[in-house]
Specification:
The protein has 141 residues and is of the alpha/beta class. The protein has three helices and eight strands; from the N terminus they run E-H-E-E-H-E-H-E-E-E-E. It has one domain: 3-Layer(aba) Sandwich (Cytidine Deaminase, domain 2). The strands form two sheets. A six-stranded mixed β-sheet has the order 3-2-4-5-6-7. Helix 3 links the parallel strand 4 and strand 5. The longest helix is centred in the first third of the chain and has 14 residues. The relative contact order is 0.23.
């Protein structure tokens, strides 16, 4: 089973985004130059809902345009579950369109956020381990 690597600051930004948009779901896109996720693109939730999310088409267009221009790779999608566990819902499974990337869910059901990472395998989501790594290079903040 492959372990997904994610920059500590990216994970912190995802959790902060979920807390900021609570009680609605947040969503966003993740990228990296190699295999490790090192950049987050927070997006509005077009659905403005506490039970579903939708990344606006113009955000997707801008994201993929930036990837082409910079040589970065699309490595993940994330959203929050304000009221439920960090497990993909039936709707998450039905509406998932990027089987090659990791899928992250931040649950705010309890006080301490619970983060789940998943990969699409054989027609469904499988929880996969992730490793938080420190940022290296010129983007250190």
């Amino acid at each position: 089973m492959t372990t997904v690597c994610i920059d500590r600051k990216v994970l912190e930004q995802m959790i902060q985004h979920a807390r900021h948009t609570y009680p609605l779901e947040c969503c966003g896109l993740l990228s990296g130059l190699g295999e490790a996720i090192d950049r987050v693109r927070k997006t509005p939730n077009q659905s403005r809902s506490s039970k579903e999310f939708s990344v606006p088409p113009e955000e997707l267009f801008a994201f993929f345009k930036e990837l082409r221009q910079t040589g970065r790779r699309h490595l993940g999608i994330y959203h929050s579950h304000p009221w439920s566990e960090s497990l993909p819902s039936k709707q998450d499974q039905t509406e998932f369109h990027y089987p090659e990337v990791s899928y992250w869910i931040i649950s705010l059901q309890i006080e301490e956020p619970d983060v789940g990472c998943f990969k699409w395998r054989q027609g469904g989501f499988e929880r996969v381990p992730f490793r938080v790594v420190p940022r290296h290079g010129p983007d250190d903040a």
